[in-house]
């Protein structure tokens, strides 16, 4: 349940690049790499003014990350930059509320089971019907517990639970411009518009599928 609470506490975004991500694709990253040992670990803790007993596996050192950011940072020593210090400070500030949310989630068995279904169908989707049912369950349960809902649980669910998101603005029968009040893009009927991740036809904003966040070079 801490995984879901972590995802919500960081506004359903990668802590590094701030790109919206889906819960099903989120990677939990250790800001100070847990692979560090010996002098390297001591140097990292000193670098960021952390005590020698700092728990690398605690929520204070965990953030949600997209795959590219996580693999890009890898096991390299976290540099002494304001961004790293800010992320560590933010993680420490949010840790208590994440623990409290996780504890509330733990009292709702339906949430726990639905989360398991979402994670089991991260890639590939093994049971689409079960995934949709889990998404609808969470769409009902989460607002009752947190006062807000998670809208980015899985690419497929984003399409199913919010089918009326996009409003046409202009265009032809082959390609139309759409908007949702915050952003916009183009939906096309040609197969070249088909997203390889979520199966939608966009909308596309440059190389980004706005339905699922997939970045894909145009054909």
What structural keywords apply?
single chain; 219 residues; alpha+beta; 7 helices; 7 strands; HNH endonuclease; hydrolase; endonuclease; nuclease; HNH_nuc
Characterization of this structure:
- The chain has 219 residues and is α+β, with helices and mostly antiparallel strands.
- It has three domains: 1-107, no CATH class; 108-161, no CATH class; 167-209, no CATH class.
- It has seven helices and seven strands.
- The protein has helices spanning 2-9, 38-47, 67-73, 82-106, 109-120, 128-146, 155-161, and strands at 27-30, 62-65, 167-171, 175-179, 184-188, 204-205, 208-209.
- Strands 3-4-5 form a three-stranded antiparallel beta sheet, with no helix packed on it. Strands 1-2 form a two-stranded antiparallel sheet. Strands 6-7 form a two-stranded antiparallel sheet.
- Strand 4 (175-179) and strand 5 form a beta hairpin.
- Helix 6 crosses helix 7 (155-161).
- It is globular and about 65 Å long.
- It starts with a helix and ends in a 10-residue tail after the last strand.
What is the number of beta strands?
Answer: 7
The H/E string reads HEHEHHHHHEEEEE
Unreliable segments (pLDDT under 50, ≥5 consecutive)? none
Give the N-to-C terminal Cα separation: 40 Å
Radius of gyration, in Å, reads 19 Å
Mean pLDDT across all residues, rounded? 87
Report the biggest beta sheet as strand number plus sense, adding barrel if it closes: 3 strands, antiparallel
């Amino acid at each position: 349940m801490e995984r879901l609470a972590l995802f919500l506490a960081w506004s359903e975004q990668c802590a590094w690049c701030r790109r919206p991500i889906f819960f099903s694709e989120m990677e939990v990253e250790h800001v100070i790499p847990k692979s560090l040992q010996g002098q390297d670990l001591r140097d990292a803790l000193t670098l960021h003014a952390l005590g020698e007993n700092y728990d690398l596996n605690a929520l204070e050192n965990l953030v949600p990350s997209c795959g590219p950011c996580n693999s890009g940072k890898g096991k390299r020593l976290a540099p002494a930059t304001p961004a790293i210090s800010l992320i560590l400070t933010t993680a420490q500030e949010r840790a208590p509320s994440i623990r409290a949310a996780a504890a509330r989630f733990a009292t709702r068995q339906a949430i726990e089971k639905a989360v398991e279904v979402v994670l089991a169908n991260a890639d590939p989707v093994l049971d689409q019907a079960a995934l949709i049912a889990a998404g609808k369950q969470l769409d009902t349960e989460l607002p009752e517990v947190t006062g807000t809902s998670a809208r980015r649980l899985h690419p497929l669910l984003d399409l199913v639970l919010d089918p009326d998101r996009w409003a046409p603005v202009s265009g032809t029968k082959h390609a139309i411009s759409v908007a949702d009040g915050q952003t916009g893009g183009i939906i096309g009927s040609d197969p070249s518009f088909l997203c390889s991740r979520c199966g939608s036809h966009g909308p596309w904003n440059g190389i980004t599928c706005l339905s699922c966040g997939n970045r894909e070079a145009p054909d």
